[in-house]
Amino acid sequence: MSDAKIIDTAAANADGQTKCPKCGATDISLNAATGELRCNFCRHTFKAEALDEMKDGVGDLSGEQVGSGAADIDKNADSTVTLKCTSCGAEVVVDLNESSQARCHWCRNMLSINSKVPNGMVPDTILPFKMKKDEAQRRIEEYVGSRKFFANKRFRSEFTTDNIMGVYFPYMLVDLKGHAEFAGEGEIEKGHYTRGHDDDKETVYKVDRYKVQRGCDVEIDDLAVESSARRAGASQERETNNIINAILPFDTENCVKYDSNYLKGFTSEKRDVNKGDLQNIVDSQEREAIKFALNDHVTEYDRGVRWEKTDVKKEGEKWMAAYLPVWLYSYVENPGSKGQLTHYVAVNARTSETIGSVPINKSRIGLVSAGIGLLVFLVLFLFIFGSEDASGIAYSLIGGLVVGGLYFSAVFAKYRNTGARHHFETETKIKIKNVTKKDEFVKKFETTDGSMSGANNLAVAVEKLKK
Questions:
Q1: Of 48, 79, 123, 327, which is the most exposed, with the fewest CB atoms less than 10 Å away?
Q2: How would DSSP label each residue in 124-165?
Q3: Residues 40 and 142 in one domain
Q4: How does the average pLDDT of the chain come out, rounded?
Q5: Phi and psi (nearest 5°) for 284?
Q6: How many CB atoms lie within 10 A of CB 337?
Q7: Same domain membership, residue 259 and residue 243
């Protein structure tokens, strides 16, 4: 693809101000119940200006396009800027690490930056909060409340939602238009039978193997990739930040043009990675989303497909920097120690999706799991296997250990959510069209394997940030 075309998403914002369309006042804030802006002078509410570049259809995409808010970060950019009041001419200094707007101390006119500052502070687009704090508190209380029995004792006594915060997290929203070609092998089961006797029985599968090729035109809309190095790595050594992305997807089709008025009463995290740092992640997620979409076109291969060659030719790709809204609760377990771990509970401030991590009382869950395992052992030993020989004791013991272990794992997964993530491969908005198929018979054979060796059409490759 050619050099990227930079889309100036702030060009129309001549004076950097949002004015009430009814009275012209500049004292504007967000109505969190509706996601609309509200004039604090006349109380008029109005919808924000839509960003034209977000409304453009992916079908018209051509070449590489990058919003000015998604341009590479200038590490030498000064985070302190001076804003000139358009009403009285006064100059006001703003620290962009703290805020992207200020009020003139002379005439009380609201000021905001009127161009994209090349330091990752200002995105192209923003998805406003549409959930009040009290609703987010209720959802977090319900989530934690259903997990208190095995929760850490100290956590149960200290838990409160008074400290939750509304945060805008930085993401890149990527559109793709292109053509994909996938090639590999697939297998179809044609029957099976059992051979052997008594304890030496095994199932044999009759299989047809084919060379498989699929091609398609593809359009991906708003693939969301986190643009914070801290979260893109999803490290869980000291904090459970993987759950923040697990509340995706957002209704990004409702994003509007960035306006600093949306930040009032909330905090925001600055983008600290560039498009180049994220390109491999985006390429991987685009490829995986296409692969999963193609599963509807390889349903005959019931033993699986092993894709060996994947090629995505891009006709167009567009990047936009975005702020997406999250209500966030945090709790530090074992502060100051080697075992310190920060737990988060996050609420999608648009869809209400809630997920989190709760500190576990390992002693309690261990005792309960052991009790369940012992109960299973006794039931198996007394009523099923009996005590006629040593094998009855062994089978009963194994059954108790397995059930107890499964219970422990299930509770741990419910409380900690260590594997929680955004399922981009199925949740990304994608269209594939003009699908072409080519299948070539290879051979018949028999195997004792119940599925195709190396099948990857249902496996997800997750690329992480390398920086």
A1: 79
A2: SEE----S-HHHHHHHHHHHHHTT-TTB-HHHHHH--STT-E
A3: no
A4: 87
A5: -65, -45
A6: 8
A7: yes
265 in the same domain as 154: yes
In whole angstroms, give the CA distance from residue 290 to residue 182: 9
Total domains in the chain come to: 3
Q: Do 208 and 104 have their domain in common?
A: no
What is each CA distance from 63 to 224, 288, 310, 315, 321, in whole angstroms? Answer: 19, 22, 21, 6, 18
Residues 259, 342 share a domain: yes
pTM for the full model?
Answer: 0.86
Task: Indicate if 338 and 370 belong to the same structural domain.
Answer: no
Has residue 66 been placed in a domain? no
Whether residue 350 has pLDDT greater than 50: yes
What tens digit of pLDDT does each residue of 243-295 get? 889 999 999 999 998 888 888 888 888 888 999 999 999 999 999 999 999 99
Statement: residue 181 has pLDDT above 60: yes
Give me Rg for the CA atoms of the chain: 28
Q: How confident is the model at residue 232 (pLDDT cuts 50, 70, 90)?
A: low
Q: Which residues pair with 179 in a beta bridge?
A: 217, 313
Q: Domain of residue 89: give its range.
A: 5-61+71-118
